[in-house]
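Team,

Forwarding the record for the chain on the shared tracking sheet. I've put the sequence and predicted structure together so nobody has to dig through attachments.
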Amino acid sequence: MGTLNAIYLGIADYIDYLCLAEMVDSIEVCNFKNLMFVDTDLLYALQIVPDPQTKKNIPKNSIKSLLDFLNHTVTREGYLLLRDWVRKPLAKLDLIKQRQIIVQCFSLESFKDNRKQIFKLLSQLKNPFRKIRRLRTNELLWNSWKSLLVFLSNSVQIAKLLRLYFGSLSIETSVDHKFTTLLEDDVFEFQKLSETILLIIELQSSAEEGKVRVLGGVDEEIDGLRVIYNDLESILQACTQALMSSHNQSFNTVYIPQLGFLISVDIADHALGAALEWDQVFATPSNAYYKCDKVQELDEKYGDIHTLINDREIEIIQGLQEEVLTYEAKILKVIDGLVELDCLCSLAEASASPNFNYPTLTNGLELQIKDGRHVLLESLLKVVVPNDAIYEEKERMIVLTGANFSGKSIFLSQVALNVVLAQIGCAIPASSAVIGIVDKLLTRILSRESLEKRQSTFAIDINQLSKCINLETERSLVIIDEFGKGSDSIDSPALLGGTLTYFASRSDCPRCILSTHFLELFRGNLIVDRVRSERVKFLCTQVVLTDGEAKAADITYLYRIVAGVCDNSHGIHCAKVCRIPSSIIARAEEIARKLDAGKDLVNEMTLLTAHEEQNYSIARDVVMKFLALDFSDSVLVTFDLSEFDAIF
């Protein structure tokens, strides 16, 4: 009801409240208990749906999000339903398994050709459903009836494909799936309805005129009227000849729908009509049109022939509409079934990707993904290094450290996206997986700044972390990526260390993956000793450093996740890879060496180099000599400035 109220408040100023009921076709109850909690920021941070802030800067046909990867739908309604599924993954085991079974059946190689045929048949139904619903408004537009005929024919063809396929597999389909209506026998009554329509509507003339026309032989009254209408030219000629013989003047007899039969006189002979006392109906710049006794006789004899035909056709089509409306409930059910089928085939098309496998879902707290890959990264690169995300027994937290550029953020989002894929009902890019149902997916992974939020970067990060802490349950999955980058080097590590200790100390700790560059937390076992070792697993990304002279290629990223804690972020090596000027790199290395040696950086930065010391000594000697001069005698003093050459 809150949603309806919000809609009404948005449009109340533009419509009469009595019209609101006409704008609502149906009301459905949405139960969020069966859905995974996913907030708006997370949808964009994990690239589950395209971010409108960056959408304009990305090529049109590129894969920008998980929705783009999954989207193979061919109908507008199918795309909207798929977007809804992706934004709201399921969180009830039975519902996920039901969908997964159907998607798995549709993704089999034996169904590949059928899948292509279904897409082809559905693509012919682009924007048809709105046109079909127009039939309730008694419209005579040919496009609406044409869409209905295509819908009826294609629905029967799709039903035959599904019945044949599921009959050979002997798989029981759940009544919760709307597409199962296509497996019912009464779908084939559409063929009978299609034949009835084709026995009444004339296709060629309807297509040419854009208006429904009734076939000859359907109605005697229409057939008789059409005979007269087709012979109208000879009737007009006979009337014209009769009038000309009696008046010896030049004019024509014409027929205009809704006005009937008229005398057309050239505007130059306009006085003729007045002289004959004819009643003028209207005039154009070239002709004047009149009624006389002769044409009134034609009106009485034949009537408004064109309008009579149209009125009779409307009556027949309305009768046909009434028959179509007896199928309305079934048509609407089949429309919903076809929309869902479009989505299921789209998920199956994505799940049939190479090296995708269906995970095992449970009601437990497992999270074991073997050889997992990032679905979006794999769509862009030919080779992606797989990594495991496995919680052993009592483990609830993974702490990931590693060098910059080494794939930490990719690993975190990879795990989250695979969980989302699994709970949508799809296969995932992994060799195998066992996943306990996640009720809430909570992240601190990306700071989406905007003027509307009116918050600093650190405030946004803190609010996201607070949301993770306040909303999580034992069945949640919490992803925290490099929290605290927006604050100082004391508060941020302290807050992160407190958060890590808080989660690890709880008996109902959620499954959590955390990455950080605050390596000082793990030196001297500052944090490790405070957390239960069986609850936390420490992983790091693997790199290889090349011995010898410093150069841009002295670090190799393997993108492998291994056990342990990284001891260095190798930020300077990353700067070399990004081609930062060598002078900046050299200075950074010098400062880094002083920091590693534990020296006071402020004092060290004030020390002079050897070259600066030499210049200082020369300048000091010159100044001392200058100060020793006696200027009391009025003698010419000469001073050799050549000693400053070494300085300048």
